[in-house]
Write a structure and sequence with these properties.
heterotrimer, A alpha/beta, B mainly alpha, C mainly alpha, B: mainly alpha, ABC transporter involved in vitamin B12 uptake, BtuC, 0% strand, globular, C: two-stranded antiparallel sheet, two-stranded antiparallel ribbon, ABC transporter permease (chain C), transmembrane transporter activity (chain C), transmembrane helix (chain C)
Chain lengths: 534, 364, 321
């Protein structure tokens, strides 16, 4: 049972030396060193794709590092699988919980850690253990409740209880507050402090500066797969962390003339959206975009940007409840009962955030994809059949104008590189000259050359007097392209800035849910009703 | 980047799967003490060695083309229609009702009407599972299985209690009007002064089936609806992004699929039996699954696979006649084809992909 | 209808429901672990043939039973290979298994016995004989309870009692043992099992194997219990009725008992009354035989008590990062 390495006196709980991990050509972790002292809360902060989750997956045995060494309690250890990690005293609370929805709390807690072949003794022991943990750490959950009846916050407590039941000394939490209300998050922090005071070691992966400042003892910053800094939290500031996190990257430069905004194209008033699971994703969005301007929406992924794009694109999630008003060129658009086809006809182009799942049919050829969404355009019809010659000609022309390589319209979309796939989508949407272009993550997974090209096209569309709504998690991109910047956090717009007046630290604070220049307590958004009532 | 070249994906993988299926079939024949080469000889001789054999081979192939196309159309919409058997049975009912209701003066008039009857009944039988899938999320595989049995019971009732002529003990409908009998291929050959396929059931429906292949090809790869069906089948989220309604596509694809399965009745009910009998479909609906899988869900692949299965069917019958191998050998071959080209696809694909990756690395 | 008639019909229902119950519980193990199985029919058929053939050769119903279980297990192994190891389509694999059994049984039967797919009739120890429970005769004169005990409860083969005992046993395994907890978890959310350090593959193979064993008993009962030998296609769609019962029972053991009893009763009634006269209308037997399927479709449609299958059912498990 105890494969746990002997703790060397005073040794750190976790020490990583030179961990590297690559996925194909992508270097997710580069030569990472990290020391987490026993009995501390250690924050790891970084933007989307900085390599935080990969690092933690290595610790939990999902991946084997290409190079480097892991020491737990001072002793080196090879983590083959989750079983080894659990035995080494590591507990993991995933962003997406690994719970069985129609099991009780008790059943979930003992799953995989049963005492014997029969459940009864295990359940009895777990019940006692849960009672103890509950009183000790404010981890109250009804042991007989079904998971599906619990609020997200309570489900998370079950994940923590699972780890503690397995006698975890080291607890890793991946973006634990992403799904919590502020009140629930505060409760979680009380629990974490309690655990630390009992000598547990906690690693908190997050992108929210407020949390880092509020709860951690030490913080490490990751950027592009590297560990760029490790500091004592008390010796740093949110703005310094924001800068470290965003980095002083080579600034993307896009040549552009000042915007000359015209009449309003898109007006959004009080847009609220509650998804099918009952979680409020948008909490009252107000937006205006005029002809001839780019409005950039900055923010960490998962703060409601995707839902906003889908609603504007005409296809809100099935079962969602919507409220508010959307006007396009002054005319009200229906919130529901519409579809993406009608929205295109009204003059809205849409480059979706995920080109592989939505924007393209990966098995379709490039020319078929260039017609995707516009396949019922009159010029593509030939009586009862599609006019393939017309579509091919149209596709070839767009492929040439957008310099898609290889310039072969017969090739399936899946066989193009990411950048060229994106060019196909952008070509399709931009060349239709929409009055409003919705564009999400235009350059995610796209090479430098294509980035520049796509950026130029977006600006050209703006200069042609069209409105552009740009959603991106890349702050550089937002800064380079936008005429105005709105920052989204937790389903609302935290604030608006002009790009030449905004600093990265300032935007970083907004993205992390903190009003710059206000003390953290006041910056907490007012508590909303708990997501998914207990 | 491609994991392996297109030809390997489209031709090599299914070919290896087929070879495996037939190799194991040969082993089965060996196991029951017969010689696989002898068996093959008998089958080729019996199915392809004479115009008589061809007449039956083409007759069976016609059935399988329709049911194979039915599976194909649903497959492209990402739906597994396992209910071809019931839809074809209901198509038979449609044909019988149309042909018994009107004293048709000529087959050329009766055929289009019977086709409408067959297609409508087959389509309606697929409609309920389709609607339940689209609106209520009921698993279409399970509902279509259930509908196969419900169709069998319904037909049994209709034949015994409603369509059975007075005084007959046979659970079958009355014979269709003489004028509505479809011309057999042998009659058509005779018109050209050729002796071909005497006493075989192959009839004009074979040409209808070939045309159906062409039409399905046009539908899937040349029409807007086909484009939407394929897009939906590949990615539901992509389809929604493009403004394609999942409910609409699910229902329409299943209607077409059911209509195609129903159309089989033109061949077996109108063309061959010339009345509606119990269990007229004889498993052709299920063979459609094997045919579609083997034909890679392409209408021309389906045509070839249907011919192969027509050959197997006729050859298997001959085998049973002249040797001690029962015709159920065909069912085993059919099972192995479904298993290897369908369920065990990855068993062949994964090692092949590894080989091609290694080859590429070696070159790079 | 008088009391003896009702007893006879109920007795017949018990006999007819036994293979359904066994196959239904078989499917329950497999599907609760997340492996859909529309190949119950084929497994049962293969088992029925193997049981009859070996029982004839050895003149032992028990050896026949073992052979039946082995036959169904072989089919389960194919399904496991396709569905678990090679992450293939579980439905297509099930279809293939049904055909494989349908063809192989006749092929082998013809080779061995030369009786067009039948086995020779079984007699004596090659069949499971009916067991008279203690005091059955002594209690018979007692009104109501006596005949029920003597006619309905007593006088079945051992396999009938095994089938009925499987219901509480399955319930107990599923809800009271570690194996059952993990089995249910792997059908709902395999990632929860995987992150807890338990092998998804091993659990699923285990479930599929149990499914094979139970289908084996069901098939053996068909060939050596209820009838005296194997006949071509003797399962006659029972695997699919069992599947329907499983959905009807919403994948729960006690409800499976109820569902299979209902379906067995329908079959018994249809056998007894080809045209059931209810006074106002006459119900044809075909309607009774279609009723299980109709009821299942209604349940599937979710208009009355929606049946929600195990959440991870039908999906091969791929470790996510």
């Amino acid at each position: 049972m105890t494969a746990r390495p002997e703790a060397v006196n005073g040794a750190p709980a976790i020490e990583l030396r030179g961990i590297s991990k690559a996925f194909g050509p992508v270097q997710a972790n580069k030569n990472i060193d990290l020391i987490v002292p026993r009995g501390t809360i250690h924050g790891i902060i970084g933007e989307n794709g900085a390599g935080k989750s990969t690092l933690m997956s290595i610790l939990y045995g999902f991946y084997r590092p290409d190079a480097g060494e892991i020491l737990i309690g001072g002793g080196p250890i090879t983590i083959h699988d989750s079983q080894t990690a659990i035995r080494a005293g590591i507990g993991m609370v995933f962003q997406h919980f690994k719970l069985v929805q129609n099991f009780t709390v008790l059943e979930n807690v003992i799953l995989g850690a049963e005492d014997g072949r029969l459940l009864r003794p295990s359940l009895a022991r777990a019940r006692g253990e849960l009672k103890r943990l509950a009183s000790e750490y404010e981890l109250q959950v009804d042991p007989d409740a079904m998971i599906e009846d619990l609020s997200v916050g309570h489900q998370q407590r079950v994940e923590i209880l699972k780890a503690l039941y397995r006698q975890a000394d080291i607890l890793i939490l991946d973006e634990p507050t992403g799904v919590l209300t502020p009140a629930e998050a505060d409760h979680l922090f009380r629990i974490l402090r309690g655990l630390r005071d009992e000598g547990k070691t906690i690693i908190l992966i997050t992108h929210k500066l407020r949390e880092i400042m509020e709860i951690t003892d030490n913080v490490s910053v990751m950027r592009r797969g590297e560990m760029v800094a490790s500091v004592k939290t008390s010796e740093t500031s949110p703005s310094q962390l924001a800068e470290l996190m965003v980095g002083r990257k080579v600034l993307l430069r896009v040549e552009k003339a000042p915007a000359t905004p015209g009449a309003p194209v898109l007006e959004v008033r009080g847009l609220r959206m509650v998804d099918a699971a009952g979680v409020e994703r948008l909490r009252g969005i107000d937006l205006d975009i005029r002809a001839g301007e780019v409005l950039g929406i900055a923010g960490v992924a998962g703060n409601g940007q995707s839902q906003l794009l889908e609603i504007l694109g005409g296809y809100p999630e099935k079962g969602a409840r919507l409220e508010g008003e959307i006007r396009l060129k002054g005319a009200a658009l229906p919130l529901t009962g519409s579809d993406a086809r009608a929205r295109r006809e009204a003059g809205v182009g849409h480059v979706p955030e995920d080109r592989q799942v939505e924007g393209l049919i990966m098995d379709f050829s490039a020319w078929e994809n260039v017609a995707f969404g516009y396949h019922d355009a009159p010029e593509f019809q030939n009586g009862w059949l599609m006019n393939q010659a017309a579509i091919r000609a149209d596709a070839s022309a767009k492929i040439e104008r957008f310099d898609v390589r290889p310039p072969n319209p017969e090739l399936a979309a899946k066989n193009f590189s990411g950048g060229n796939q994106q060019k196909i989508v952008v070509a399709r949407e931009v060349e239709r000259n929409p009055d409003l272009l919705l564009i999400g993550q235009p350059t995610r997974g796209v090479d430098i050359g294509a980035i520049e090209f796509i950026h130029k096209r977006i600006i050209a569309l703006r200069d042609a007097g069209k409105a552009v709504l740009l959603v991106s998690v890349e702050l550089d991109e937002i800064l380079a392209l936008s005429d105005r910047i709105a920052v989204m956090f937790d389903g609302r717009i935290m604030g608006e800035r002009l790009p030449d007046q905004a600093t990265t630290a300032d935007l970083g604070c907004l993205m992390a849910g903190v009003e710059p220049g206000t003390p953290p307590e006041q910056a907490i958004p007012p508590a909303m009703g708990p997501a998914g009532v207990a | 980047m491609e994991r392996m070249p297109k030809w390997a994906d489209v031709i090599l993988t299914p070919l290896i799967s087929l070879v495996l299926a037939f190799a194991i079939s040969a082993l089965v024949i060996l196991a029951i003490g017969e010689s696989p080469t002898e068996a093959l000889k008998v089958m080729v001789e019996g199915a392809l060695g004479s115009s008589y054999g061809w007449g039956f081979t083409l007759y069976y192939a016609t059935n399988f083309i329709f049911t194979g196309l039915a599976v194909t159309v649903a497959y492209h919409a990402g739906l597994f229609n396992i209910g071809g058997e019931g839809q074809a049975a209901m198509g038979g009912l449609g044909v019988a009702l149309v042909l018994l209701a009107v004293p048709w003066p000529h087959w050329a008039l009766a055929l289009p009407a019977a086709m409408v009857g067959a297609a409508v009944f087959g389509a309606l039988w697929a409609l309920i599972p389709a609607w339940l899938q689209a609106k209520r999320g009921s698993h279409i595989v399970i509902t279509t299985i259930m509908f196969n049995f419900i169709a069998a019971a319904l037909l049994n009732y209709v034949l015994v209690n409603l369509l059975r002529p007075v005084g007959s003990m046979d659970p079958a409908s009355a014979r269709f009007p003489e004028a509505a009998h479809l011309p057999k291929l042998t009659d058509m050959a005779l018109a050209f002064g050729m002796q071909w396929g005497k006493n075989t059931p192959a009839n004009v429906t074979f040409f209808v089936a070939v045309i159906a292949c062409l039409l399905v090809w046009l539908l899937i790869w040349r029409s807007r609806l086909g484009y939407e069906i394929r897009a939906f089948g590949k990615s539901e989220r992509g389809a929604v992004y493009a403004g394609i309604s999942p409910v609409r596509i699910t229902v329409i694809a299943m209607l077409i699929s059911g209509a195609l399965a129903g159309l089989m009745a033109i061949n077996n009910v109108m063309g061959e039996a010339e009345r509606l009998v119990l269990n007229a479909v004889e498993g052709a609906g299920f063979i459609g699954i094997a045919v579609a899988l083997m034909g890679r869900n392409h209408p021309f692949g389906v045509l070839l696979a249907a011919l192969l299965f027509g050959f197997l069917y006729q050859g298997g019958g001959e085998l049973a006649l002249w040797t001690s191998v029962p015709r159920e050998l065909i069912v085993v071959i059919q099972a192995l084809v479904i298993l290897f080209t369908g369920a065990l696809d990855n068993m062949v694909r994964m090692p092949l992909e590894r080989i091609f990756m290694a080859l590429r690395k070696g070159r790079a | 209808m008088d009391f003896p008639t009702i007893l006879q019909i109920l007795d017949s229902a018990v006999r007819l429901m036994t293979p359904l119950l066994l196959a239904c519980l078989a499917g329950l193990y497999s599907e609760r672990a997340g492996v859909f199985d529309i190949g119950l029919e084929g497994k049962m058929l293969m088992a029925a043939f193997a049981a009859a053939a070996v029982a004839y050769a050895t003149n032992s119903a028990w050896l026949g039973l073992c052979a039946g279980i082995m036959g169904a297990l072989a089919m389960s192994a194919i399904h496991g290979l396709a569905a678990i190891t090679f992450r293939g389509n579980q439905l297509i694999s099930g279809v293939a298994i049904n055909f494989l059994a349908s063809g192989l049984t006749v092929l082998l039967g013809q080779k061995i016995f030369g009786l067009a797919g039948r086995t020779p009739a079984l007699a004596g120890p090659a069949r499971f004989s009916e067991i008279t429970l203690p005091f059955a005769e002594a209690l018979r004169p007692v009104p109501v309870i006596g005949p029920i005990y003597a006619e309905l409860i007593s006088g079945h083969t051992i396999l009938v009692y095994v089938a009925f005992a499987m219901v509480p046993l399955t319930w107990w395994v599923l809800y009271r043992t570690r194996f059952g907890l993990r089995l249910r978890a792997v059908g709902e959310n395999p990632a929860s099992v995987d992150t807890a350090g338990v092998s998804v593959t091993r659990l699923r193979y285990g479930a599929v194997a149990i499914c094979g064993v139970l289908c084996g008993i069901a098939g053996a009962y068909l060939a050596t219990g209820i009838s005296a030998g194997f006949v071509k296609e003797m399962t006659a769609g029972r695997g699919f009725i069992a599947l329907a019962a499983l959905i009807f029972a919403k994948w729960r053991p006690w409800a499976a008992l109820g569902a299979t009893f209902l379906f067995g009763l329908l079959e018994a009634l249809a056998n007894r009354f080809p045209n059931l006269d209810l006074g106002i209308i006459t119900v044809p037997s075909m309607f009774m035989s279609a009723l299980p399927y109709i009821l299942t479709v209604i349940i599937l449609a979710g208009f009355v008590g929606r049946a929600i299958p195990p959440r991870a059912g039908g999906e091969p498990y791929v470790k996510e990062r």
